[in-house]
Amino acid sequence: MPMKPQDSCSSSTMTLRCSANYVVIVKSASYGVARIAGSCAYTPGDCVADAMSAITCTTDAVFCNVFATRKRLPQCNDQFNDYLHVEFDCVPLSMDDPANEYNVCQNGTDITSDYGILKSPGYPTQFQTTTAECFRSIQVPRNKTIRLWLTDLYIGSLLGNCVNDHVYVVDSIQTYRHCSRVRYSYPYICSSTIIIQYFVKTQLSI
User: Fold this and answer.
1) Alpha helix (H) residue ranges in the chain
2) Has UniProt tagged this entry with the keyword Hydrolase (predicted)?
3) Domain residues of the chain, as ranges?
């Protein structure tokens, strides 16, 4: 569920909020230098710089407080930012119909429904190790686009490694790799088929 983008003046705090049973997933965050004097909101033509490193939303939180740090931006002639601009989604943690919740390790069965939630074995209790890599395919008609969010990942491998424990999303163009503790809003995926690969080897994964 796309939400209205939020803006906050530098050196102040914004709250990103979802309703119960939904989680905040930030799609993008930018520091901005406003062309309009005194403005604390993004307008086209503003000088902006990536600010995703400033976002630290707790897993499974229905709200997230984000402090708009005042920073000097080399990308904007060393000016200080006037505001922080954040775009986010509210993503459900469960479905009203259990038939739309899928086990990532139920290999060999394609997912073709319009929406649903893909879960690891035993979720939301302790993550279970897998004896082999799990594969699950999502297929949609060619005239549709896939929206995909990673709402709750906390498995053992360090970020940047992802060898022993990982979630891979593979489309016709590239492979997205994630591990450790992370949330992620994938870009729009235009492939009619994507493969989700899930592997947990580290016993300490939770």
Assistant:
1) none
2) no
3) 6-92, 98-200
